[in-house]
Write a structure and sequence with these properties.
six-stranded mixed beta sheet; Rossmann fold; 434 Repressor (Amino-terminal Domain); 12 helices; 345 residues; 3 domains; alpha/beta; 16% strand; six-stranded parallel beta sheet
Length: 345
């Protein structure tokens, strides 16, 4: 299978009325050096913008350049890039690229559709393909531009992505949360608090909704939901939300937290309230981050293979660039419940 790119350098040259060589000089920043007029430079840039042209560096690699550059873009604000949701994913991507002697270039975060001129950044970044982290609309745009692209994020939120033209890697987040709900019900809990962030519309994230529905249906239990109110997923968020949860529903006997990072704060709030873990209140997280096994008590949690997500995304993107069909379509990585002392009665 050969990857088809929609717009070529020759197309831009024809649109601007110049030679392909002039297009290369302008877009590679050498126009002034070769004394290309400002008027011509502007005409070339306008033509490239109209046609959504991104330099086909992948083609150069296919004819002899073995070193590839993978672009990576996320919607995570810069202040949260240190959190596991991006850090572990990025490390997995970099490790896989390095293993194959390629490079990962992290592009400016896209927090919304007006963050910056994405096309201009991609045009000048000289990347061979893009891994898109949690920005579904951008994956769609890049597919329309015929850029090699792999989307990483909640697949159920983007059922309309053209999987015949892009790759997608996601995890079975809802299945993992349902396992947690069944476990808590099986060990006798009937009233559970849920601490987890919501969608921009204020509804629980799908994995949190899956927990709530599964718990209710499995034993007729009751779940009380608290949204911390922002997207940082920090221990501070977990601490604040759990305090609110205990004030509103003091009778809960278990807490399902949206991430292990937030669970650190949730456990602190329970201890401050005089609640013993797990004797008075059991706690379950989501992520199975390395720190989780070393908390006091060690945290029961659902695995979230963020590191594997990054590695698989790069693997699929490189397969696309090599013309292989396994670079396209959807891959779902499994999750599982890891039971530790924060829930054992």
């Amino acid at each position: 299978m050969t990857r088809q790119h929609g717009v070529s350098r020759a197309d831009v040259a024809g649109e601007a009325g110049v030679s392909p060589t002039t297009v290369s000089l302008v877009l590679n920043g050498r126009a002034d050096e070769k004394r290309v007029s400002k008027q011509t430079q502007e005409r070339v840039r306008e033509a490239a913008w109209r046609l959504r042209y991104v330099p086909n560096s992948a083609a150069r690699a296919m004819v002899g350049r073995r070193h590839l550059t993978v672009g990576m873009v996320t919607r995570q604000p810069p202040s949260t890039l240190h959190l596991p949701i991006f850090e572990y994913f990025a490390v997995g991507a970099v490790e896989e690229a390095a293993r194959r002697q390629h490079t990962v270039k992290i592009l400016p975060p896209v927090t919304d559709v007006e963050s910056y001129d994405v096309f201009a950044v991609l045009r000048d970044a000289h990347v061979d393909g893009i891994v898109v982290h949690n920005v579904g609309w951008l994956a769609q745009v890049l597919a329309d531009w015929r850029m090699p692209v792999v989307y990483v994020g909640p697949g159920e939120d983007h059922d309309d992505l053209p999987l015949d033209r892009i790759g997608m890697v996601t995890t079975d987040e809802q299945g993992g949360m349902c396992s947690s709900a069944r476990y808590l019900a099986d060990v006798g809990h009937t009233t559970v608090g849920v601490v987890g962030n919501a969608t921009p519309e204020g509804a629980p994230l799908r994995r949190m909704r899956a927990f709530i529905d599964e718990f209710a249906h499995h034993r007729g239990g009751i779940s009380h939901y608290i949204d911390p109110g922002d997207w940082t997923w920090s221990p501070e968020d977990g601490h604040r939300a759990t305090k609110q949860l205990l004030e509103a529903w003091p009778g809960i006997t278990a807490v399902q937290v949206g991430s292990d990072w937030m669970a650190i704060g949730a456990m602190r709030a329970l201890v401050e309230a005089g609640r013993r873990i797990p004797d008075d209140v059991a706690v379950v997280g989501f992520g199975d981050f390395p720190v989780s096994a070393f908390l006091n008590p060690p945290l029961t949690t659902v695995t979230w293979p963020l590191h594997d997500l990054g590695g698989k995304a790069v693997e699929m993107l490189l397969a696309q660039l090599d013309g292989k069909p396994d670079g396209l379509g959807a891959v779902v990585l499994p999750t599982e419940l890891v039971v530790r002392s924060s829930t054992r009665q």
